[in-house]
Amino acid sequence: METKHAYRIFSRANWIAVLVIGLVPPVIFFLQELAVNGAAHTKSLEDLGIATIFSLVVTVLLFFGVTYIIVKLHDAVPWDRHPVRRLTVETLGVLSYATIAMSLATVMFHRFFLEGSDFASLLYSNLLIGLTITIIVAAIWEGRYFLHQWKASLIHAEKLKKEMAETQYEALKNQVNPHFLFNSLNALSSLVHKDADKAEQFIAELSKIYRYVLEKNKQVVAPVKEELAFLNSYFFLQQIRFGENLKVEVNVPAEVLNRFIPSLALQILAENAVKHNEISVAHPLHVQVLSENGFLVMQNELQLRDEKAESTGIGLQNLRSRYESISEQKPEFIANGKFYIARIPLIAEE
After folding, report:
1. How confident is the model at residue 157 (pLDDT cuts 50, 70, 90)?
2. Among positive and negative, which fits the CA dihedral 98, 103, 104, 105?
3. What pLDDT digit, counting tens, does each position of 81-121 carry?
4. Which among 243, 306, 230 has a CA at the least distance from the CA of 270?
5. Which of 53, 160, 278, 280 has the highest Cβ tally under 10 A?
6. Lowest mean pLDDT segment, chosen from 55-64, 72-81, 92-101, 113-122
7. Which helix (H) or strand (E) holds 22?
8. Which band of pLDDT confidence, cut at 50, 70 and 90, is reported for residue 321?
């Protein structure tokens, strides 16, 4: 993702750069005059003054004009979305501007200061110098921009790695916390004597949960079909515990199964639903998972427990942050009084 970078066009550093770039041509011109005509050539000082004024004027026009064009193009035609169009527009834009600005400046100085000189020769040499300055300025700005983008990408990568580690830690902590283990083992112990086959399936699904969490610790995204398979294992365990009081309905079309979402995203949403809502005979919980307008949606009735469950908020916050790093779309978490709705954007490819 391309990151925003604030440029101060008329900064002190830019004015210093203008002075340095603007003074180089007249100094070179003056030294050449001295070498050819000697120190006694008094006209050299007059020519130096005219050349200095002209050079500073055109450098100001070119430097700040080109800078303005490039800064505006960063927003209008960003490199990461339209690289060919950006290269074309920027090249034509800055070269056209430089040609017009240099031509007008040459006409004005020829009329007021250099009326006796050969205009065609003067225009040719000035355009050559002006376009050279333009290319240098554009290269400086774009080099600075791409350096900033490279540094920002490194920061994003480290941030994403940290968030993935935090998500994995939170996921593992939720799976091995005493409540989860106690409830799982309690459910298993009741199954062992009643239904050996179901107890065996319970153990298999429990192992799938741990294996999936450990396997996905280094993956940024996972296919929807894998996340739904994990969700099935998770809700199997919960339905052993809550029985008919927990109903889960998954209605996701086949074409969505090969799309991607952040790994362990559905675990975060499912745990929130089970942790924060009352699930009882009087208040059964109905969880729905569906696809809607490019989003994977998990929704349930909002029936909060009287005693609020402990929550760090890390899961949902990390989910938001991870989407910032991999997509321009954002997840949505909506509590409208009757339902809690979590909408996470589907990603086309890994």
Report:
1. confident
2. positive
3. 888 888 888 888 888 888 888 888 878 877 776 666 677 87
4. 230
5. 160
6. 113-122
7. helix 12-37
8. confident
- How far is the CA of 149 from the CAs of 74, 79, 136, 152, 283, in angstroms? 12, 11, 20, 5, 52
- Token output for 77: 């035609």
Phi, psi of 156 (to 5 degrees): -60, -40
What is the bridge-based pairing of β-strands 295-301 and 246-251? unpaired
| Crossing angle of the two packed helices 196-215 and 119-176, in degrees rounded to 10 | 150
- 189's enclosing H/E stretch is helix 178-194
- Model confidence, pTM: 0.53
Instruction: Kindly report, residue by residue over 196-244, the tens digit of the pLDDT.
Output: 888 888 888 888 887 887 787 667 889 999 999 999 988 988 888 888 9
Residue 128, C-beta contacts closer than 8 angstroms, at least 6 positions apart = none
pLDDT at 176: 45
Please choose, from the candidates 348, 347, 318, 316, the residue with its C-alpha nearest in 3D space to the C-alpha of residue 332: 316
Of residues 56, 57, 66, the one with CA closest to residue 139: 66
Rg of the chain over CA atoms, in angstroms?
A: 33
Q: What 3-state class would DSSP assign to 219? A: coil
Unique residue bearing structure tokens 């080109």? 66
Is residue 12 packed enough to be buried (19+ CB in 10 Å), middle (13-18) or exposed (0-12)? Answer: exposed
Report the half-sphere exposure of 310 (CA within 13 A, side-chain side).
3
Taking CA atoms, 232 is separated from 162, 236, 238, 270, 336, in Å, by 28, 6, 10, 10, 26
Residue of higher predicted confidence among 112 and 251 = 251
Q: Indicate where the chain has its CATH 3.30.565 domain(s).
A: 177-345
What is the C-alpha separation between 310 and 333, in angstroms, rounded? 19
Kindly state the tokens that stand for 320. Answer: 């938001």
CATH of 177-345, one of 1.10.3470, 3.30.420, 3.40.50, 3.30.565: 3.30.565
CB contact at 8 A, 134 and 62: yes
